[in-house]
Amino acid sequence: MEVTNTSSSSIMWFFRDKGFDDPSIDKMLRKCKQLDKAQSEVASENWDYLRNIVGIQERKLPYIVSRCPKILTLRLDERLIPMVECLSSLARNPREVASAITKFPPILSHSLEEKLCPLLAFFQALGVPETQLGKMILFNPRLISYSIDTKLTVMVSFLASLGLDQDGMIGKVLVKHPFLMGYSVDKRLRPTTDFLKSSVGLTEDGIQSVVMNFPQLVCRDVTKVLKPNYDYLRECGFGDAQIAIMVSGYPPILIKSIKNSLQPRIRFLVQVMGRGIDEVASYPEFFHHGLKKKVESRFKLVKRNNIVCSLREMLDCSTKKFHDKFGFSEVTASYASL
């Protein structure tokens, strides 16, 4: 690697001292042209600040710097410290800031005044409580890289078109699943909601309920995930109206693994418990409960004691309430789990 000037020589020695090999250094130089003029003193100061003050582990710093080498060129007092202090004011504990930087190192390269502050104001205008702002930004730090005008506003308009434009509903959705904002409205979210309406048969209220309670669902691919699950439920004998009710009541049913979740539970329900699928249609949360730890163990108890009860009565309560409801002792329960 040819060294052309004193600054380049200085920063190269810094990188080599930190354990970077020449190919990695070349890649960073191509990624960040400012490194050519970077001073090793500035780079060393920033490195030490991230390690000693922010609390990022030494072994993670090479990864962070390779992802965003610009970090080493920023003035500590003018850029890094103000950004870190602002992020720290949003955090519940200092480790969250270090974690956010590790997840998305470029967060430190963005302007506090031009990017982070307008972003916080944008979310507050949507009704996101100040106490929840940190949860959103630090959980998904990539948010700072999104354009408010060309991406986030489009997302908000789409959610409003679903009828979620009252009582801070949009803000609540975004707090629940900040990664929603990373998806394309036209390529992912609109096709998904169209599928829920046209194929699954959800009403406008049903779609609103799904987005409010489980926004992760509208982020999944229709062809690869949602439609195969929908088709499987139909193959099991569920009617269109029943599937719509189940999706409204328990949206994850459309993204659960068919092989590892849906099939074993339906097989156990029908072949072992001797129950019909109609009962699941009225209690879709059945698919939420652990098969072996909860469904099988409780079924053994009620069967051994000749107790007749619905799935909801058997499963929709804590272990203590279940024992109290049917009069089981701890000894009896332990015996049933064997």
Word description of this protein:
With 338 residues, this protein is an all-alpha fold. The protein is 64% helix and 0% strand. The protein has helices spanning 6-17, 22-31, 40-54, 61-67, 76-90, 94-103, 112-125, 130-139, 148-161, 169-176, 185-198, 204-213, 222-235, 240-249, 258-272, 277-281, 291-304, 311-315, 319-326, 330-336. It is elongated and about 80 Å long. Belongs to the mTERF family. It comes from Camelina sativa. Pfam families: mTERF. Keywords: Transcription, Transcription regulation, Transcription termination, Transit peptide. This is Transcription termination factor MTERF6, chloroplastic/mitochondrial isoform X1.
Helix share, percent: 55-70%
Helix-strand topology string: HHHHHHHHHHHHHHHHHHHH
N-to-C terminal Cα separation, in Å?
67 Å
Kindly state the number of beta strands: 0
Shape: elongated
* Structural class determined from secondary elements: mainly alpha
CA radius of gyration is 27 Å
> What is the multimeric organization of the chains shown?
single chain
The helix count comes to: 20
Fraction of residues in β-strands: under 5%
Unreliably modeled segments: none
Give the overall average pLDDT.
92
Described by strand count, sense and barrel closure, the largest sheet is:
none
